[in-house]
Amino acid sequence: MLLHSRIMRLVNNQQGPALTIHTERPRNHAYSPGDWIKGKVSRLEKIMVLDAELTIQFNGMSAVATNAFTRGFNVKRLSGQSEMLSCSRFDFFTDGQHETWQKLHAGPMRVDGGPNDLVTWDFCIQIPYTTGIDTRDPEYQMRPSYLSLEPGQVRQHHLPATCEPVDVNAQVAYYLSAQLTY
């Protein structure tokens, strides 16, 4: 039995001028915590450096933006009242977290940049069951939350399902990001 509260869909494969991420499963495939995401990061653009590092990371976040009509805030006038936009974002994993991050390459990198010079690196990342934030970090200690942010209890909370309701400006999203530094 597959619980709908644990279904996750990745956002589209992204392609930039330098890196492209391809997953083995189709874009609309539903993942669950514990599943493995397999794929390739590729580069066609020319580069020749002595020291490069290529990483890939599984990311998760929730975000909400709400409009509130209040008096005293002059953001946008509507019938004598003001509209105030409030935005919030929460990342489920920290940068470089061991379970969601993988180093694909370290050292010299050379891609000639011709039409037949595509270079690829394979990756395989397991989706964690819980968030990986460290609530001892001062950034999280003062955040309001319906769930306990006590260090021992954070890892007991399951990750939320992907969701993007139509009638509110909110979402829960998961995506892969690749980074090349040199």
Task: Name the descriptors.
elongated, mainly beta, single chain, 182 residues, 47% strand, five-stranded antiparallel β-sheet, 2 helices, three-stranded antiparallel β-sheet, disordered N terminus
Q: What does this entry show, briefly?
A:
The chain has 182 residues and is mainly beta. 4% of the residues lie in helices and 47% in strands. It is elongated and about 50 Å long.
Ends distance: 46 Å
Radius of gyration: 20 Å
Helix/strand class: mainly beta
Oligomer: single chain
Number of DSSP strand runs: 10
Fraction in beta strands: over 45%
Major sheet details? 5 strands, antiparallel
What is the average per-residue confidence, as pLDDT, rounded to a whole number?
75
Order of helices and strands: EEEEEEEEEHHE
Helix content: under 10%
What is the number of helical segments per DSSP (H or I, 4+ residues)? 2
Shape assignment: elongated
Characterise this structure.
- The chain has 182 residues and is mainly beta.
- It is 4% helix and 47% strand.
- It contains 2 helices and 10 strands.
- The protein has helices spanning 138-141, 151-154, and strands spanning 8-9, 20-23, 30-31, 36-43, 47-70, 77-78, 81-91, 101-111, 119-126, 169-181.
- The strands form 3 sheets. Strands 5, 6, 7, 8 and 10 form a 5-stranded antiparallel beta sheet that branches.
- A hairpin with a 2-residue loop joins β6 (77-78) and β7 (81-91).
- The longest helix has 4 residues, at 138-141.
- The model is unreliable at 1-7 and 70-78 (pLDDT under 50).
